[in-house]
Each structure stands twice: as C-alpha cells, then as structure tokens.
Amino acid sequence: MICAAQNWLKYKRPEYKIVKVNISHQNFFNSSCENLECYMVLNQTAKTIIGSICFLAGPITLLENALVLVVIAATATLRQRPSYLFIGSLALADVFASLFFTTSFLDFHLFRHSDGPTAYLFKLGGVTMAFSSSVGSLLLTALDRYLCIHQATSYKVVLTRRRALLSLLILWTITIIISFLPLIGWRCPTGLSPPCSRLFPYINQGYLACWTSFILVLLALILGAYALILLKAHRHESSMTSFKGAAGIGHARMRMDIRLARTFGLILLILVSCWLPALCFMLADVSIILTRTQQRNFAFCSTLCLLNSSGNPLLYALRCRELRTAVLQLLQRVCGIARCKKSSEDLTPGLPSTEDDTPNPLSSVLTEDETLGTRTSQLNSVSEIVNNNQKTTF
C-alpha cells in the first residue's frame, strides 16, 4: 500500500507543478493590469515623441479653433449662415478634443496616473464625444457643400438655419449618448481579470466594434459627398472646353475648378491618413490579442487624430473668404480698443483713410482667382455656385 501511494504521488507531482506555474503567471498578469500597468506601454523614446506632439498640437489646436468660434459668435452675418454653423460645430468639437485628449492622454501615458473605472470611463467618454462630433461635423459640412452645388437653385430653401440647428442638435445628442455608453453600463463584464480590450481598459469589445463601425460609416459618407462634388467639377471642366468664343474666361474658370478639386483631394487625403491607422488598430483589437509593440503603435496613431483637429481650421474655416475678412475686422477692433489703430496709421501714412470714398482695405484679402470669379459671374459653373451661395473660397 505504501508503494502504491508513492507511485501515485510520483505520478501526480509533475501535473501539480505545471498548474502551479500557470496560476502564478496568471496572477502576475492580473496584478499588473489591476493598476492599468499593462496599458502603460510607452518607452522613453515614445514618451518623448508623443509628448512633444501633444504639447505642441494641443495648444495650437485650442487657439485655432477658439479663434474660429469667437469670430463666428461675434459676427451676426456668419451666425445666420448654415455653413458657418457647421464650421462652428467642428471648431467646438476640436476644442473639446484638444482639451480632453491632451490632458487625459498625457496624464495616463506620461505621468502614469491610474484612475478608477468610473473616472477613466468618464475621461474616455469625453475624448470619444469630441472626436465623434468632429467627424460628424465634417460630414455635415460635406453634405452642406454637396447641397450647395447639386441643389443650387433651392439651396436656401432646403437648408435653412432652423434645419441646420436641428441637425446639429441631433448630431451632438447621438454622439454624447454613444460616447458615454460604457460609463452608463456597457463595459467589459470581466473588468481587468482578464481585460476585454488591449487598447482601452474596461471597454467591451462589442462596444468598440460598434463605435469603430460608426466612425467608418461617417468617413465613407464624407468620401462619397466629396466624390460627387469632384465629379460635378470634372463635368463642368469638360463642358467649358466647348465654349470656343470664351476661351480666356473658360480657361480661368477651369483653373478655379482645378483648385477646387485639389483642395478636396487634400482634405480627403488628410482625413483618411489621420483616422484610418487608429481605426485599423481598433478593429484588430476586436479580433486578436495585440502585443505591447502594437499597443505602442496605436498610441502614436491616436495622436494623428489630434493633428487632424489642428488642421481642420486651416482646411475648412480660414479658407473661407468671409471668415478671413471677419478675422481681420475683429483684429482691427481689438487694435482699436488697445489704441493700436493710431499707431498703425502713423507707421503707414501713405494708406488712404476709411473716411475717403475708396475701397475698404479689407478688400485686399481677395485673391486673383476671386477677382476673376467676380468678373465672370454670369457663367453657370461649380465655382460660381460656391461663391454665390456659400461665399467660400476653396
């Protein structure tokens, strides 16, 4: 009987050791994730690069978009236009993105501050709301330009200020609800033992897949709207070649349409380049277990979304002729309050005063192509529709 017991212990001991090692390794992994250590994957080089991007892009994004918001809010004519309401919504979303993303990202990855589930999901909900509203505002801007070109005769009837405000209300309501669903209750059922997602603590993979699909649908609609606009521009460019008697005017108009196509192409290239890498990592996180290197690469790709928010004012707002004029007028008013106007007149005595019957100095912001567009306003073209209905220089 003693020999049988010894043989039984000899047979069972190796299996006992293997189970003990596996349990020890699992406990080590779970203990590191309890403090969110498994999500703090940046090494010193990555911290330097990503930290520099956030410290530079964050304040620049905040200042640019805050300037756009102030100009639109301070100009009565811009507040009445649906196009500028959409641009204002985009600027507001990018202001939130610069605040929420920069502070939470640096606090977590650089300063390694761990929050509880509620605090972390609240911060993540703010970042998600900002970026979702930014992409949604880009879609409304693209649809506005599509209607401006393809529904030129009935544009002002179809898209009124009331309908624009209603669409913005719907957009922000949907994005707020979707963004804070994990905080409400749609979170990882196992918590961090084990974690559901390797990119975001406490996040359910089903929710991550739904949000990523939602953003991809918005991006696809934006691409479709701009593709239809470019198709309209291409057709107009082809039709201009048939006007033999107006070769010079046609050449000028074709040049403006080529500028339109190049601008839209730049918008789409920047949009896809900034958003697609991060979305691909999110889709991969749903299906596979990401390594620490892939987690580190995702942290870098997520900063590209912040760079997209810093470029939006330059692509959508400050390219608008009326908004540039409003910015100059606002700066003149600020200088007048600070008594800079008198100093500027002393430095430039040769400039005509505003009391004369001469054109306003702000007319100097008009470019050569805009002057050509004014001289040929009788032509029915894509550029004319944009200038007459949207008053925007693309």
From TrEMBL:
Transmembrane parts of this sequence: 49-72, 84-106, 118-143, 164-186, 206-231, 263-284
GO terms for MF: cannabinoid receptor activity
Residue span, G-protein coupled receptors family 1 profile domain: 64-316
Chain intervals for the UniProt region annotation (Disordered): 344-364
One Gene Ontology CC term in the entry: neuron projection
Its membrane topology: Multi-pass membrane protein
Intracellular or extracellular location(s): Cell membrane; Cell projection, Neuron projection
Entries under Pfam families matching the protein: 7tm_1
Superkingdom of the organism of origin: Eukaryota
Keywords: Cell membrane, Cell projection, G-protein coupled receptor, Glycoprotein, Membrane, Receptor, Transducer, Transmembrane, Transmembrane helix
Family: Belongs to the G-protein coupled receptor 1 family.
Protein name: G-protein coupled receptors family 1 profile domain-containing protein
Organism, as annotated: Mola mola
